[in-house]
Design a protein that fits this description.
By secondary structure, this protein is α+β, with helices and mostly antiparallel strands. The protein has 5 helices and 3 strands. It has a single domain, classed as Orthogonal Bundle (Arc Repressor Mutant, subunit A). The protein has a 3-stranded antiparallel beta sheet. The radius of gyration is 16 Å and the shape is elongated.
């Protein structure tokens, strides 16, 4: 991941609703849009917008089953951001001093 990719993905994460959705998916696994809506105080149209942004950024996978959409976290892409940040904070000479541990 380069700096621009990190910045683009960070912009997607700079929204409390999207972070809450990612936390819900991390905790619960695959979720139907209807279950996500039950937890949030947003409209279906707003949820669709957020899920499209998260999907386009590669944070969630969507599977359609009839009229329902099921969302799953793509944890590898979340981990990629974590590794990018971890690479910044690791000390050059002595990684045991890293504050991330």
């Amino acid at each position: 991941m380069n700096n621009q990719e990190f910045l683009n993905k960070s912009k997607v994460l700079n929204d409390s609703t999207r972070l809450t959705i990612l936390q819900m998916l991390s905790k619960n696994g695959t979720m139907c849009a209807c279950k996500i809506l039950e937890e949030l105080s947003i409209t279906q149209a707003t949820l669709s917008h957020h899920m499209k942004v998260l999907s386009n950024a590669g944070f969630v996978n969507v599977e359609r089953n009839g009229k329902w959409c099921y969302y799953t976290l793509i944890s590898e892409n979340i981990c990629e951001i974590a590794h990018f940040i971890q690479d910044i904070c690791l000390c050059k000479n002595d990684s045991k001093d890293c504050c991330c541990k």
